[in-house]
Amino acid sequence: MMKTTTLKPFDTTKHVWNTRDAWHLLTRSGFGTTEAKVKQATREGLNKTVERILEMQPESDDFQKTQSLIEETAFDTGNIVDLQAWWFYRMIHTANPLHEKMTLLWHNHFATSNRKIRSVDSMSEQNELLRRHALGDFRKMLHQMSKNPAMLVWLDGNANKKRHPNENFSRELMELFSLGVGNYTEKDILEAARAFTGWHTKDDEFWFDKNQHDEGKKSVFGKSGNLNGGDIVDLCLKQKACPEFLAFKILREFVMGKPDRKTIETLAKCIRNRNYAMNFVMKELFSSELFFDSANRNSIIKSPVQFLVGTVRTLAGSVNLRELAGLSARLGQDLFQPPTVKGWDGGRLWINAANLVMRFNFASDYCLGSKNGKISDEFLSKMVEGSLSEAEIVTRLGNLLFASPIEQKTRDNLIADFKEQKSNRIDSLRGLLRMMTSLPEYQLS
Amino acid sequence: MFRRSFLKQAAGVGIVSLSGIAPSFLTRAFATDVRNSPTKGRILVLVQMAGGNDGLNTVIPHGDAEYYKARPGIGIPKQNVLKIDEHLGLNPQLAGLKELYDEGSLAIVQGVGYPNPNRSHFRSMDIWESANVKTDSIETGWLGRAFDEKLKNAKSSAEIPALAVGMERTPLSLVSRKTAIPTVRDISSFKLKRMQSAQREKVFDTIFASRLASETENPELAFLKQTSKTSLVAAQKLQEVTANYKPAVPYPAHRLGQQFKTVAQLIAGEFSSRCYFLSLGGFDTHSKQQGAQQALLGELSTGIHAFFADLKKHKLQDRVLLATFSEFGRRVGENASLGTDHGAAAPMFVVSPNGKGGLIGKHPSLTDLTRGDLKHHTDFRSVYATILEKWMEIPSSKILGQKFPMIDFV
Predict the structure, then answer these.
(1) Angle between the A46-54 and A19-29 helix axes, to the nearest 10 degrees?
(2) Mean pLDDT rounded to a whole number for chain A
(3) Taking the complete model, does pTM exceed 0.95, yes or no?
(4) Which fold has domain B41-191+271-400?
(5) Which residues contact B159 (CB under 8 A, 6 or more apart)?
(6) C-alpha distances in angstroms, B279 versus A119, B317, B352?
């Protein structure tokens, strides 16, 4: 049976699909974009582009080999920075940026920190779980996450015993992973904790310790019986608050910095109708009026990962992955080591004087070239092909970097400065790009 | 000159009144001497001793025979102890701290801990940093909550209330809801790279040529434009100030020493932070304790000593209060590997030239123990409460969950 959409679809009778729409879709669903991709998306139209984004595109052999090599290195060294470098490699080079962005969203959602886990193997395993279900069935992911060894260690699963139920897990399951604060009672948490007793790990794997499991009758969200952990997960998924909570997270990441009640409820309805199938939910979202609304463009402050990866993907070049991971951590986004189980709230919290100076310095280093990375000469040559004037180049780059045209005065200054450069074209271009990626406008997605 | 052209712009654009987030750094940068308002200029420096420092070999009860009975191998010989009185003294590596003590600037708060001490590094450090002794989910640090309290009416802030120096990630103590605390390796993190002064004005003018967006148009863009301006001005000011800053004393070459130098530079540079966090690790001395702990205590002492000596020469010492903390002390009896295992109560150092020095509280009994560990008589949250109320002038009971008795060190 064909499901009807919940979100109002993009109305092609009201507006014609254009380059800016294509750019918006590509950059929001990924990390930056290229001119070629924007051209292709403009040509192919909304539906085909959305299909393309959601489908798993094949990765090149080179990608597979390299990412595997880096991951192996991380397993060998046991150093979390190497695993961070691996993930940065994936985000920068993947043919499927949406999948990586969704994985990152779930990492933030199920925030687990290596600071306590202290195991590259465990964190990698959890990351694989997130990626496997990133655009899949959230119900499956929640069930599997409740048995994920890293998660159980993180939330003191092994301390959850028959005679002394440990609430940490059941509390976070409800508060942070499915329902959000306040959508359960303390009694629900306590009873749910009993249902999870015996859910332990042994030798870094999930192990159900029957002797520690409370077989008694529990009552959660009005349902009674000899409930076990799986039953609790199902009950959480049935609560009205669950799709609303997920809707909030998804909107905040892809659509608007401060999702309003009405929009949350609409997307929640979509999630419920689609039975938590993320692939269909994101398809509807990316094809909706809401997503392309001008009020929602240029409205999300880039996270450190979005800023760094987006820049490297857009302005092709080479970069030292471990240094990048370290910089991301100093900017506030330490992959695999979120500050608390609440994850990163993001938004304006990413920005303060010190972080901005670090972002400006990255822009300088990457654009002008440094030992930690630089835009390739090849990319720059392409940008000045066809004897374009300075104004045309500034326009061309502006279209690639910003959601909306920059102000006339800024534009004039950039052009004037570019004209005045005494160095060769390529070096002047580096200077221009440094200025452009230092603009406040560039911090917005 | 940059400053002139910037002021010209600022006047035309009304930067100060935008969106309720007063760019107070700017107003301070061009305002009257901060030092005229005593509490406004006050600074807290926290030094974390990670791993669980052995308090018993730090503040040594050399007059108690039990000490030498419990530590035949690692007890510090009486003649080496830097004596405070006939009962207590400091580890020989703490000469710098001893000097501060003799001056009246060092308070030694004895027997600090909390009920039902936890002996896990992570758990106990989380307890110290969050000031939360229950097994709740921990989200914020005690200082983070202090910052949130100060920003009560603002939705968020572009100001930097604190700085973690030399750390890769924000320490829990500083984690707050409303503001993100940056970590910096050193001052060079604030230096704008690759901008010779001739070029800098051009770049700034280009970046800020556009008018500040209004809140209604695009609130996030308005916020970013404003913060960008503030940041660049801060970086500029910092470069000017630290370029002119000369440490008045030599700092020890070790990492902590250099970090203290950075903090002194920032304080002297009137950087907006009121709080600095440093960390020294390696105190988890389960075996062959003597060498390891002596080295670390030496770094701590020489670092703190140089820091305050430098501040004094710059006439800034009265504005700074420094406190050390560790996740727990260590067991009274040495173990079989000439080391000690995780314990409980331990002393805290509070250096405050503006405050009162001395010994605070009695040394815990070496015989009346809990499972071989020293009993605490002073809750660490009392120390925090005192710092919050008496030094930072912020009410403490909301931040700490209840009222704690004040301690007389400031």
Answers:
(1) 10
(2) 93
(3) no
(4) Alkaline Phosphatase, subunit A (3.40.720)
(5) A352, A353, B24, B25, B179, B272
(6) 23, 21, 19
CB contact under 8 A, A407 and B230: no
Say if CB A389 and CB A414 are below 8 A apart: no
Nearest to A233 by CA among A106, A141, A132: A141
Which residues on chain A are in Cβ contact (under 8 Å) with B183?
330
Give contacts of A406 with chain B, Cβ < 8 Å: 210
Asked if A360's CB is within 8 angstroms of B158's CB, the reply is no
Average pLDDT over residues B298-320: 96
Domain range annotation of chain B = 41-191+271-400
CB A122 within 8 A of CB A150: yes
Q: What is the ipTM of this complex?
A: 0.91
pLDDT tens digits for A318-374?
Answer: 999 999 999 999 898 999 999 777 889 888 888 877 888 899 999 999 999 999 999
Q: Is A232 at the interface with chain B, CB within 8 A?
A: no
pLDDT in tens, A193-214: 899 888 888 888 888 888 888 9
Kindly determine whether residue B225 and residue A357, on different chains, have CB atoms separated by under 8 Å: no
Those residues whose C-beta lies under 8 Å from the C-beta of residue A201, and which sit 6 or more positions away, are A149, A152, A153, A157, A158, A207
Mean pLDDT of the region A29-40: 98
Report long-range pairs for A215-218 (Cβ below 8 Å, ≥24 apart): A218/A191, A218/A192, A218/A194
> In whole angstroms, how large is the CA radius of gyration of chain B?
23
Q: Domain-by-domain residue ranges, chain A?
A: 19-54, 115-278, 304-443
Other C-beta atoms within 10 Å of B63: how many?
A: 15
Instruction: Write out the two tokens for B72.
Output: 């035949």
Q: Please report the residues numbered 329 through 388 in chain A whose beta carbons come closer than 8 angstroms to any beta carbon of chain B.
A: 329-330, 332, 334, 337, 339-342, 345, 348-358, 360-361, 364-365, 368
Which of A368-377, B148-157, B325-334, B340-349 is predicted with the least confidence, judged by mean pLDDT? B148-157
The Cα angle at residue B252 between residues B247 and B255, in degrees rounded to 5: 105
Identity (one letter) of the amino acid at A192?
A: A
Are the beta carbons of B193 and A364 separated by less than 8 Å? yes
Residue A156: name the closest of B114, B135, B126, B134 by CA. Answer: B135
